[in-house]
Amino acid sequence: MGNSYAGQLQSARFEEVLHSSIEASLRSSSLVPRPIFSQLYLEAEQQLSSLEGGSRVDNEEEEEEGEGGLDTNGPPNPYQLAPPPEGCCTMDGFCQAGKDLRLMSVCNEPLEVPAGFLLVGVKSPSLPDQLLVCAVDKRFLPDDSGHNALLGFSGNCVGCGRTGFCYFTEFSSHINLKLSTQPKKQKHLKCYLVRDAQGALTQGPAICWKGAEFRNRQASASANSGPVLPLLEGSGPLAAFSGEPGAPGLNLGIQMSAQQAGPTLASDQPPMAAAPGSRVFNGRDSPKHQQLAQSSLVMLARPSALGILSNSGPPKKRHKGWSPESPWAGDAGYVQGIVSRAKYGAGVAQAGTVGPASVAFPVMGSGEPVSVPDNLLKICKAKPVIFKGHGNFPYLCGNLSDVVVSPLLHTCYQNSQSISRAYEQCGSSAVQPISEEMQLLLTVYYLVQLAADQVPLMEELEQIFLRSWRQSHLAEVRQCPQAPPQPYPAVPGPAAPVTSAQLPWLAGLAASSCNHSVHVIECASSLAEGLAEMFRLLVEGKLAKTNYVVIIHACRNAAIDSCIAVTGKYQARILSESLLSPSEYQRKVHCELATGRLDSLGAFFSALCPEGDIDVLLDKFHQETQGHISSSVTSPSVTNAVGLEVGGIPTCATDRQEPRGVRPSQLAVAQKLLSHVCSVADSSTRNLDLGSFGKVDFLVCVPPSEVTFQQTVAHVWRSGVLQELGLEQEPATRQRVERHVLKMDAEAPATFTAFLQRSRRSPHTLFVLVHDHAHWDLVSAVRNLYSQSDPCVGLVDRLLNCREVKEAPNIVTLHVTSFPYALQTQHTLISPYNEIHWPVPSGDGAGLYPESKKYFGLSEFIESTLSGHSLPLLRYDSSFEGMVTALGKRFPHLHSAVIRTLVLVQHYAAALMAARGLPQMKNHTSVETLEITRNLLSAPKQCPCGHGLMVLLRVPCSPLAAVAYERLAHVRARLALEEDFEIILGDPTAGITVGKHFVKRLKSWQKIEDAEWRPQTYLELEGLPCILIFSGMDPHGESLPRSLRYCDLRLISASCLARSALEQELGLAAYFVSSEDPAEQAARSEASGSGDGEKPSGSDNEDEEEAGPEAASLEAASPSEPGSPARREWSCSHDSASSSLSSRGSGSVLCSEASAQHSGPVQGELTRASPPCGSMEEARVPVEKPRSDGAPRAGQQSLQVPSSSSSPGASCTGTLVLQAPQCSLAKACRQPPIIFLPKLVYDMVTATDSSGLPKAASLLPSPSVMWTSSFRPLLNKTMTSTEQSLYYRQWTVPRPSHMDYGNRAEGCVDGFHPRRLLLSGPPQIGKTGAYLQFLSNLSRMLLRLTEVDVYDEEEINTGLWEEPEWHYTQLNDPWPDLELFRKIPFDYIIHDPKYEDASLICSHHQGVKSEDRGTQRTAEPPVRRRTARIRLSKYAAHNTYHHCGQCQHYLGSQPRYQLCESTLHAFAFSYSMLGEEIQLHFIIPKSKEHHFVFSQPGGQLESMRLPLVTDTSQECIKSPTFTPTTGRHEHGLFNLYHAMDGASHLHVLVVKEYEMAIYKKYWPNHIMLVLPSIFNSAGVGAAHFLIKELSYHNLELERSRQEELGIQPQDIWPFIVIADDSCVMWNVVDVDCSGEHGREFSWSERNVSLKHVLQHIEAAPNITHYALLGLHKWGGRARACEVREPFSRCHVHDFVLLNVDLTQNVQYNRNRFTCDDVDFNLRVHSAGLLVCRFNRFRVMKKQMAVGGRRAFHITSKVSDSSAAVVPAQYICAPDSKHTFLAAPAQLLLEKFLQHHSHRIFPLSLKNHGHPVLSVDCYLNLGPQVSVCYVSSRPHSVNISCSDLTFSGLLLYLCDSFVGPGFLKQFHFLKGATLCVICQDRNSLRQTVVRLELEDEWQFRLRDEFQTANAREDRPLFLLTGRHI
User: Fold this and answer.
1) What's the distance, CA 958 to chain centroid?
2) What gap in Å lies between CA 649 and CA 641, rounded to an integer?
């Protein structure tokens, strides 16, 4: 059908391939049959004749250049396509279904590309400038070199979606190519299609249909004909991309240089964001670069076919049943095993970069196969690990189970070719990647430098590449400001570039100095030759001392091929096991246990023991001791236990439990959490409305560990948080607490569903979802391959990341973890601003940690290993490591975890036997294990209560943990130690099982009387001597007790080289250490000052417990015979097996084998005879804590241990104690545990880089993430937690199995979830207590948000005066009767509690009671006014912090609305008293313009609309509300939406000019009246004055406007509301007067809306006859006398309705700062107007600590004056040198009179019968001075003063109405004082003359004063005189 190809298979070639394939399959030992057609790819025959090959090339060249034959010299071959079906589309560029296929049309559309297909551009002859888009199976397309394209065609139409085109002829007809020649895919499939950085589909690299050989020849033969393939557009890095989650791309940057990057990876790899200017390959493999030897042509092509022998490719095209997902595909069989290993690999398996470490990436195979020899594992004692390097890798066949092949090194090479984003701005033309030759040479350098016990790490190799690249481009890097710092010094390397010819020689030269540890094999023909040579050398045993084999195939004119084989037994075992996934690891161990492979190891152990089998010795010992256990042998702990039961409770120092409480650091973290939640609520996105929540609920999710679950339940139960949150009324039981803790097991979904339903039912409850131990189970529920088999895998993703949780507005998710690295990636859901890091003790949080406690974490443990510390807390056991290494060589088929476990169990068994009286067993254990068992057995003897130590034995594999438990339990039983210590199997899926006698002991220690009690957490095992065998692949957050003394981590996997894995294992020992008592410190200091011979001795038990014999100073002398001590010092490696005892413990057979592994003797060995157990005298310096504050050390003495009896019985139980024994638990509380690590992990943890950062911190942070680039800076020790988070967020991405992998594809702008927080802190530091405290704080805050502090004060001055005889008799009147109300006299007395410090106002209606009331008024105001906390009602006024859906439109701040548009309007009117025109400015939002009248739309403001008196609408408020405010833009209660109950109203904020912008920002939808700038420093009187004058002027304008409409002027509504900005709620008092007697009544109070209050008052009959209306101030203790009168004629404050028509001639004093409302009330009343207070309506005022009158500060004008200004300094003599003050003159005057009026009116002090006469004003003269107000206006209403004699006269800015005759009608005491206040000194003299004051008053020059203002500030002047 026209599908002819260059290099098509001949029939002979077909038969040859067929027969060889069948033969190879028959020879293969693999169970999976090899596909017969695995080699049937197209190959260009290199041995063809030149004539045949030349003609074929020339023919294709003509077709290629002729574009379908249109431009060839000869006529085209006639070809006729089949006619299209009737009715189909035949338009060019469209398919027959009518769908557009042109690239320009579909470039931005999402196209579905099936797995295994690529988007390809098709060239149509009829559309020369267009490309058509189609999807082609990549198996039918060639690779980079033009090879391996499968015969035939398979494609899909991306337009109509039709699939299954098996012939290109058929497909070309469908897409309307309309060809005149035979359709050929080579001619018309032109290029790959890629997506650019914007996601648009664009033309990519051309498809290479010719072999590299022909291209080479053609390029050299026709140099002037131009390149065959066009250069790739753009110079940035290339990246692969796929929109499908299941088929992600690969980020592979390729520099446009002359270096070859090697074949690329498969297409199913994680995506990376494309760099600017980069191309993104859609659904296909990224291209590579090749540099031709004789050309600078840069060519891009597909990678070669991937696979291994057993599954290397698909069958021919006719076999339609084959698919990429079928078992015959390239990812099945053995390849699939390699893939799964790569997913979970660590160490070298952790490539650490975007690559095949996590994806299905079969090893590339090409060329002749290489057979793996049989019995290779048996010969080599380990599986060789082959890492593919550069170029093509040959096929392997034969014994494939004995080798491991990994592509991770190839990935490392590829990622090192990419240029980091930090260097992109330097320009790709100047910066080139490192060459392949240099990569391989640097790899050889690295391997040569590795020690015999070191394992190569990809992270180290990447840093070497980075150093080399930085050196070669130093100039460019220096120009780049963002270049990362150079982490290492320079590495040796050739100055000139390395060529392919030089590479083998240089590599061999480098390997020649390593004593044969690295062997280089140079291949002449292919890489297969080198592999075959390596296998031959392995079989012949010639590579016994070689750890690494480097195979190089370097040709002069082609790219290099390379691979590296790890053949060292130690390294190969670790690397091969590191490639196993956790499930494969468990399965392998289980298989070895089930098949009985351990029997051979057990037999070997028996052979090692010269005394016979250990079990035989145990049985013999058991028979000897059976029934003959005397009291002398009985354990002291047993004796203690018996003593507890008989009577007499022993006491111990540790019986005093530490007080449980919240530590300062926990309080600080809880407060930080609360602050972050408030920040989320305060953000402009409004994703959390805290104001809508009134309650807090929570759910804590923990891993599926029963101990962790019970531990968290206990924390919650003890914290009392359920009672604080109101979730439980009484102390909750543990069963009720368990409802709030969720264990993530199979039952979790049902509980979580109930939690979601509860959150939906309670929208006003804020639910906090706490994800504790959040780094556990980050597996994606969508992309998890094992979700079907294990429903618990991916459970966190399914529950916590479900749509309901993300969208619920009342759920906040808090992730809590000690290892947050996997949650700090580029795709994380957690914003960096929502991260809370635990305060560091050495940083800002130093003050949060008490001196009595010191936290020991990872850094402190590492610090103890430094040279300045003699007793390291981190150790390793070299004898144990040597035995494990030797056994690993002897038993290569066994997993190292099995060997390590059995060896360690054997050591524990031998140590227990040695401690029990079998001293010969000491040779079969190590010093470390012997130390542990000795202290475990002897510790209970030192405590009267029998407290002991805990030994943690970490066995990650559960089957091995069960084996260890059974074996140790058997040994314990045979040694009759069941009563001495317990052995506990810590299985995460099960609870704790403890023997009954140990439970009794725990209950007696903890004083528990519950008969059914059993320990449920490890914390409850405190003091119990036990071995805890802790299983599970990862710890799940279990906390360990203070009695933990040894943390044995010798069995953790040495291949778990990820930062989180290491830190969580070491975090088990994290601990808060208590400081010693001062007396003990003094004793130790005194002891340390004495000589060695005088130091007190302790038991050797105590010394071993503290650190062990390896850390001790050994003194081989008894106390009675002091001799020269034999001291053993620590070696630099802190080897815990540096004694001859441990050397002999390994066995002679193993020592000889281990000597090859360990290069030399350990320093500090002490050779001595082996004494009996107990005769070794060991002592050590106690733990020396690192000190930065000069605190004394924990101890600095060296203890002598006496020789004990040499008898076996006494050696294990009896020691001579020279001082009182100390409880081991008490000592354990003051010193952290000792940790034993594997040697490899120990070296990794203790090694540091140049900055002092441990090497472990530079590892891959978590197995579930990967690095984005090899070119990344290193972490630095000085980085804070926040900086580390930002580092990981920049340089790591999640793997496809990670739950955050698809986060960025969700369409979010930034991908962050707004209500998700992350709390990270060190392990065991108190994070649970911190977030429980946070829940309490959050609940209190929410309760506080729903409550408000309002003033709760009784009315003042209610009992000072005689009760009047008049009342308002109609108690049930809803409104006052006008005529009846006129008869009520005005009450001059001020009753508002805020005027407690104001002067009393007396009148002739109210007389003073006979008793003196002066003592009831204190001179000083109360320190704090009384308040009450009241819950906000639904009718409350709110500040800017309130957000709810109902009032969003009212505030105009809803995000989906545009910013409120406002306009500024000027409004001017004249006022004669000011002498000038007043110009005000209105800021009117567009939504409020309907309240105003404009000359035209958008024109000049004319007036503010006013309703009619007769309007009766219930949906609006007639009175405009004015609220003057200053300094309260955030806290002012301006949101009246709820208070008005949604009614329409006009609300105007009155602000000062300088505050206009800030008020506009916070209240964009409010009308604002801006005062003129001259009032910026004025008080509230100016605001009230301008409000009233503006309102009256507006009333006149409205009357004129509406009069034209026929409305009478008196019908216009004349009232306005002037309200304080602190009025929060309104109540109404309902009175029931149905009592039997006339005036008996009862009352109740309820909350009502402001709408109800105003509409009720506005509906009052004859309301226009009242000048001023007000409300009663709320008080919580209302009295009957206050409720009895429904209306009062008295002062009104804070919230008033002002009739601007009646009060036209009564003005507010614009100069006043205080008491201006009292002054105005008196003016209104004296004008004969009615002032009415509605006593049944009560207003609540919120207490505010900011703004208002507090905004005015009186300070000195002298800048350097720091002295406080007191009120006495507010007044000074004129022309004096007094310090002037920066404050208004009126404020200084009012404050001075308030505090020092007794200096002016001495006769008025406490003289209420003779008040001060105040004319036309009320000024506060202080609480001890009474005043009498009179008005000088004609026809004013004044009190009768004929019977009053005044003690003083106050004339304040008196006008012309005050004359001499007016003043002469008043009588004054002799010596009464006069005070005249005027604007200037001239007015002062004129006033004295005009009023003829000198006739009755005597003046002196020294009696003239002024306010302490400068002249430019216009001070006020005072003149005082005495009455003659």
Assistant:
1) 32
2) 10
Structure-token match 């528990």, residue found: 1008
DSSP-derived secondary structure letter, 1348:
E
Which of 171-175, 1113-1117, 1333-1337, 1347-1351 is predicted least confidently?
1113-1117
pTM of the model: 0.67
- At 1557, is the secondary structure helix, strand, or coil? helix
> What number of residues does the chain have?
1924
Distance between CA atoms of residues 587 and 1597, nearest Å: 93
CA–CA gap between residue 1081 and residue 1075 (Å, rounded): 9
1821-1848 tens-digit pLDDT: 999 999 999 999 999 999 988 889 999 9
Backbone φ, ψ for residue 764 (5° rounding): -100, 15
Residue 1771 structure tokens = 């007044």
pLDDT value at 360 more than 60: no
Q: How does strand 1427-1431 pair with strand 1476-1485?
A: unpaired
Segment (H or E) for 1615: strand 1615-1619
pLDDT in tens, 300-357: 333 333 333 333 344 433 333 333 333 333 333 333 333 333 333 333 333 333 333 3
Q: Under a CB-based contact definition with an 8 Å cutoff, are residues 1194 and 1163 in contact? A: no
Provide the 3-class DSSP secondary structure of residue 180.
coil
Q: Nearest CA to 470 among 432, 414, 421?
A: 432
Give the tokens for residue 1753. 């500060």
Rounded Cα distance, 262 and 1595, in Å = 88
742 neighbors 699 (Cβ within 8 angstroms): yes
Report d(CA 942, CA 1043) in Å as an integer: 14
3-class DSSP assignment, residue 1760 = coil
- Which of these, 994, 992, 990, 996, lies nearest to 1011 by C-alpha position? 996
Is the CB of residue 751 less than 8 Å from the CB of residue 742? yes
* 141 close to 116: Cβ distance less than 8 angstroms: no
CA dist 1512 → 340, 1507, 1613, 1892 (Å): 80, 10, 12, 57
**What is the C-alpha separation between 1316 and 774, in angstroms, rounded?**
12
Residue 458 CB-half CA count within 13 A: 36
Distance of CA 976 to the CA centre of its chain: 52
User: Which tokens belong to 218?
Assistant: 């053609």
Q: Which residues have CB under 8 Å from 1444's CB, separation 6+?
A: 689, 691, 692
**Residue 613: burial class (beta carbons within 10 Å; 0-12, 13-18, 19+):** middle
**pLDDT greater than 80 at residue 858:** yes
Distances from the Cα of 912 to the Cαs of 759, 929, 976, in angstroms? 56, 9, 11
Per residue, the 3-state secondary structure of 1764-1805, as one string, reads CCCHHHHEECCCCCCCCEECCHHHHHHHHHHHHHHHCCHHHC
pLDDT digits (tens, 9 = 90+) for 1120-1155: 333 333 333 333 344 443 333 333 333 333 333 333
- Intra-chain end-to-end CA distance of the chain, in Å: 136
Nearest to 874 by CA among 1050, 1044, 1055: 1050
Residue 954 · residue 1048 · CB < 8 Å:
yes
Number of alpha helices (DSSP H) and beta strands (DSSP E) in the chain:
52, 59
Q: One-letter amino acid identity for 416?
A: S
The three-class DSSP label of residue 559 is: coil
Q: Which residue has the tokens 């002729």?
A: 66
